[in-house]
Amino acid sequence: MKSFTLEELAKRVGATLMGDGSMRISGVDTLDEASENDASFLANIRYREAMKTSKAGVICIDTETEPLDGKQYLISKDPSRAFQIIAELLRSSRESTAFTGIHPTAVIDPTATIGKDVNIGPFVVIDKKAVIGDRTTISAHSFIGTSVTLGTDCHIYPSCTIREECQLGNRVILQSGCVIGSCGFGYIMDEKGCHRKLEQLGHVVLEDDVEIGANATIDRARFKKTIICQGTKIDNLVQIAHNAEIGAHNILAAQTGVAGSAKTGHHVMMGGQVGVLGHVTVDDYTMVATRSGISKSLKTGKYRGSPAIPIPEYNRQEVHVRKLKEYAERLKTLENKLANLPK
Amino acid sequence: MKSFTLEELAKRVGATLMGDGSMRISGVDTLDEASENDASFLANIRYREAMKTSKAGVICIDTETEPLDGKQYLISKDPSRAFQIIAELLRSSRESTAFTGIHPTAVIDPTATIGKDVNIGPFVVIDKKAVIGDRTTISAHSFIGTSVTLGTDCHIYPSCTIREECQLGNRVILQSGCVIGSCGFGYIMDEKGCHRKLEQLGHVVLEDDVEIGANATIDRARFKKTIICQGTKIDNLVQIAHNAEIGAHNILAAQTGVAGSAKTGHHVMMGGQVGVLGHVTVDDYTMVATRSGISKSLKTGKYRGSPAIPIPEYNRQEVHVRKLKEYAERLKTLENKLANLPK
Amino acid sequence: MKSFTLEELAKRVGATLMGDGSMRISGVDTLDEASENDASFLANIRYREAMKTSKAGVICIDTETEPLDGKQYLISKDPSRAFQIIAELLRSSRESTAFTGIHPTAVIDPTATIGKDVNIGPFVVIDKKAVIGDRTTISAHSFIGTSVTLGTDCHIYPSCTIREECQLGNRVILQSGCVIGSCGFGYIMDEKGCHRKLEQLGHVVLEDDVEIGANATIDRARFKKTIICQGTKIDNLVQIAHNAEIGAHNILAAQTGVAGSAKTGHHVMMGGQVGVLGHVTVDDYTMVATRSGISKSLKTGKYRGSPAIPIPEYNRQEVHVRKLKEYAERLKTLENKLANLPK
Questions:
Q1: List of chain C residues whose C-beta atoms are within 8 Å of the C-beta of residue B312
Q2: Are residues C261 and C326 in the same domain?
Q3: CB distance B157–A125 less than 8 Å?
Q4: Which residue of A178, C44, C133, C264 has the smallest Cβ count within 10 Å?
Q5: Cβ–Cβ below 8 Å for A84 and C199
Q6: Helix C79-92 vs helix C6-13: angle between axes, to the nearest 10 degrees?
Q7: B164 and B234 together in one domain
Q8: In CATH, what number is assigned to the domain containing residue A280?
Q9: Bridge partners (DSSP) listed for residue B150
Q10: Most C-contacting residue of B199, B234, B316, B332 (CB-CB within 10 A), to test interface
Q11: How close does chain C come to B96, measured CA to CA in Å?
């Protein structure tokens, strides 16, 4: 593995070095886990204690933080960013893929438009009239349907499926196995009690800087579009149903499910395994704790529980539920006292 | 995009036109969202208010519904069906896939039997003695295992896996990424505390008109079969474990999980993120609300909660839980009163 | 289908036969479901009643179990193991895949190292410097990233993705569609309120005898590694987040999710749809019931509920919740009595 001296790192990240410029760093890790060959960082003063005991070779801190004796520092305005740059430097020095450029096994329809400096891996399939933006990478076994458009600088990991007519913006990342544009789950029951499929004629829009997790599924709309707005990050195994509108800069953690036609504002955050009922609206900046169930529209706030209620209310309710045994005993005591009152 | 005049649409769907036969329709949408180029429909008199304000170019209604002035109508016995036909007409006019017929890159074992008018996409793999029925489509990157049988008119979307010996009926639809016939999750612990795999010797049967969602998983049985009966629709990311028997015409919404050897009757409906414990039975026509946990067998009815209880009971319980703070205060008040009684 | 005589089976499993050695067995099933051509077994004396009514052609029992008249037995020390051997004998007699050896369509980088007697299916992709151990099978459409190592006797089912640098031990089984080494879900918010991706520089380690279910996802670590220790079995659609450490010989049932940096001891068991919060620790031999939510570290024990609490406590709480209606009525009665007391 490649390594960098502290002097090189200070230059690359634009930080002031406090320590031995000739020391070499070959990895990155958290304060707790870092060894003497690792860089680490203090993002939050709460972790100051961890800094004291850390064995990291160098620690990125901000200009407000007081350095400790016997440790080495890279001091800058934004230590998270400094650390991020180091992490990426070390990453770029790793072994890369053999599959750059357009692999001869890829099947690309002649009506598709392929941008400049595109990478298309082995066994990729690109259907009619698809448009692939400049510098986009489509890895092995991925499928790009008819009339799909991908912007520039996208990264499609192996085995993704993007069905016909879906539109991806710039810098979109799809983790392996995710499915964009599967049919929405819509049926009408006929006179014999059979569910007849409602054709799902719409598509999916993923705006700029969206990331979709491994094996997540985003259904196409029945009409018009299912949309994930810019900058939103969706984790593994999440389900987004037809006609849902997920606002900008949302974070939806793993295994969360959003039912049909639900809408979220911008900067909404949901923990893992949350469920959102169809047709509800979740306002901007709302935070929803893991495993919550959203059964009605939510105003901006912090929620927990199933059905989800404001967190302070949830906490009070939890205390009361835990005290139920005590309440039942006190109730019995009162009944006995009252029964034994002199008439 | 292709378009149709109202006169053409009236003929195609067998409806009576009320309006200008030369007007053109190029899309479909709900009453709320439709523009003047869209067809829409009124399926339920509850939405009559939406019809008043709709901008739809034409609205499908039934013969009982009173038309409003200034709007155009296609009047028939079954407006949902009329609308569905229009939706499908418009769909078939869209750009199609380049991959019809049998793609030269597909790897098909010579012992496999391929029906008439079958489509097999790029990089499809078909193993020994598989049988593919007439007019079935198998899209790119799908895998059909040894001795698998597919009926007629099936549609297998890209990247599905159907493992050896599974049997699919006619008109079965598999959304992308679903896995049919993965090994059931069965182990026995040996004397050293290690879990030894129990070979899963059975298979999976999907009867006629079954649809399985994107990235859903249906495990093969340990012996005999896991079965999904005719007409049942299963949504994305659902898990059906080994030896489960899902009855006919069920609807199981996204991220629901059914454990081993559980059975459902016919016309059972489950919301999203429901969990069904192993070996329980759910009777015909039972409806289970989203996020419920079924921990014992259920008679026909409507259920909610985890563990799932009848909905009226669930609602009462919820009210009491929300009132716990009040109850605790009333308890305290009583205790104080009793303590202050004159002796 | 091949079949075996009882005499042959007795020899193969090392059991004493009680019955007609010339009778033939062609299948295996549970006591309840077995027909006269099936072998079955009694693993637990609790199922003795099922043995009485079973139609199985032969039943594997241990030396302690008293045989019943009119039935045939294979008597050994470990009837589960005897039955398992019979099941595997019957399995190996089924039709096999056409794709043994290295398929000519596979794309294998010349810098990869391929062991002896390896099977590589159609359209498999193996990137730079990957190492594949002896007798390992990689089925159709699977992707093996740069510098990945696979041990000996692994079985990778169709359409798996193993991203760069992940390390798999010996006898690892991956069910179809699972993704090993997808990017961990980590972002930092910049000054404009945008989530910037934190590069995930680590990898995933799956130790010997690990099995991962269909469409399950195991994220790579931000630094260092996400690890699943030896002998652990993970079911379909499970999510393991970055930097998690799953101990040895765990059983995690379907749709369970483990958040970042959580740790489990050895021999932990979790039912389906369980959620584990980030950074918590679950001690050795802990059992967690289906649909539980683990929100803090757990000492060895049995837990249920969300948040998960010890099972006896959970059961008591459930009883109190169900009695809330009664408590509310008793409270009202007390209030009335007290109001009606003579002054």
A1: none
A2: no
A3: no
A4: C44
A5: yes
A6: 120
A7: yes
A8: 2.160.10.10
A9: B132, B168
A10: B199
A11: 25
- Alpha-carbon dihedral angle through residues A10, A13, A16, A18, given to the nearest 10 degrees: -50
Nearest CA-CA distance, residue A313 and chain C, Å: 16
pLDDT at residue number B343: 65
pLDDT-derived band at C92, boundaries 50, 70, 90 = low
| Mean pLDDT of the A224-248 span | 97
Active site annotation includes A242: yes
Q: Which of A144, A187, A237, A239 to mutate to test the interface with B (most CBs of B within 10 A)?
A: A239
Q: Are residues B198 and B277 in the same domain?
A: yes
Q: Give domain status of residue A117, yes or no.
A: no
pLDDT in tens, A180-230: 999 999 998 888 999 989 889 899 999 999 999 999 999 999 888 999 999
**Domain end among C76, C91, C106:** C91
Q: Which residues sit opposite B239 in a β-bridge?
A: B217, B257
Neighbours of chain A (3+ CB pairs under 8 A): B, C
Cβ neighbours of residue B123 closer than 8 Å, sequence gap 6 or more:
A107, A123, A125, A141, B103, B105, B106, B107, B140, B141, C122, C123, C141
Q: Please, where are the H alpha helices in C78-147?
A: 79-92
Q: pLDDT per residue over C311-330, tens digit each?
A: 999 999 999 999 999 999 99
Q: Is residue A155 part of a domain?
A: no
Q: Which of C94, C98, C157 sits opposite B127 (nearest CB)?
A: C98
User: Average pLDDT of chain A?
Assistant: 94
In the predicted model, what is the mean pLDDT of residues B100-124? 98
Q: Provide the token pair at A131.
A: 């448009």
Instruction: Tell me if A333 sits within 8 A of A325, measured CB to CB.
Output: no
In a domain, C128, yes or no: no
Residue contact B337–C338, C-beta within 8 A: yes
Q: Are residues C56 and C8 in the same domain?
A: yes
How many separate domains does chain B show? 3
Catalytic residue among A103, A155, A203, A242: A242
Burial, B145: exposed, middle or buried (Cβ in 10 Å; 0-12, 13-18, 19+)? buried
Q: What is the pLDDT of residues A318-339, one digit of tens each?
A: 999 999 999 999 999 999 988 8
- Beta-carbon separation of C84 and B188 below 8 A: yes
When pLDDT is cut at 50, 70 and 90, the band that residue A265 belongs to is very high
Q: Which residues form the domain of B244? A: 160-307
Is the domain of C343 the same as that of C322?
yes
Alpha-carbon distance of B271 to A259, in angstroms, equals: 10
Same domain membership, residue B293 and residue B175: yes
Is C251 domain-assigned? yes
Confidence of residue A343 (pLDDT cuts 50, 70, 90): low
From C325's Cα to the closest Cα of chain B, the distance in A is 7
CATH code of residue B80? 3.40.1390.10
C281 pLDDT tier (thresholds 50, 70, 90)? very high
Which pLDDT value is given to residue A92?
67
As a whole number of Å, the CA-based R_g of chain B is: 27
Residue B52, pLDDT > 80, answer: yes
Among partner residues B87, B214, B291, which is closest to A182 by beta-carbon distance? Answer: B214
Q: Which of B47, B68, B91 is the last residue of a domain?
A: B91
- Which residues of B have a catalytic role annotated? 242
Question: Is A46 in the same domain as A78?
Answer: yes
Determine which of B182, B189, B190, B331 to mutate to test the interface with C (most C C-beta atoms within 10 Å).
Answer: B182
